[in-house]
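I would like you to help me understand the sequence and structure tokens below and explain how sequence relates to structure.
___
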Amino acid sequence: MTTDAMLDKLEAAIRDSRRVVKVSVKELIDRQEALAAVEEAMTAVQAVVAELQAATHDRVAALVTECLRTVFPDAGLSFRIDFKSVRGKGFASPVFSAGGHDFDPDPDSEAAGGWIDVAAFALRLAVLMASNPRPAKILFMDEPFRFVSAGHRPAVKDLLEGLSVKLGIQIVMVTHIEELVAGKTVNLEDLCPSVSPSSAEATSRRRSRPKGRT
């Protein structure tokens, strides 16, 4: 092969290499632009999720706080949920606050036990109302306010009746606390005469219905 032929072949190889390099660079740029577009979309999605999370949190926190303040008006209680992300996993922590100070309620104390009961009820109610598709508006509870002191039970009863009407939900509650009886009541002693009075009282079923609903 002559020198000219070798040079021509070398130049042709260089041109081919340049075309390959250009194609590779273009593909790399296209992929980088596609990746940037995906990252931009993910940022937008995360912003929407964060906004929805914040909006949902605000509704839940407002409902729990309203319930706490209705039952315990002198305690100045507030409620919120703190969200944290650890290694890509999300964690939620309930936070009670009073007088601008956060605290962890002691479940062994009489007052805090009632606070926890009311907050737990409100959270269950919030989950029911936020569910999509929404299930039947019926909330079943088993002795949900056992730690609420006697002095606050009338406020709990008023709260249940008010929420039942306001939100259009039916509350079915098992309780032996007479102060919480509202709406239609079914006593196991009436259904099962063989059940002792004390046993029937401990397991009597109390059912609250919204006004106008059957």
Q: What stands out?
A: Confidence is low (pLDDT under 50) at residues 198-214. The beta strands are 77-86, 89-98, 101-103, 138-142, 170-174, 185-186, 205-208.
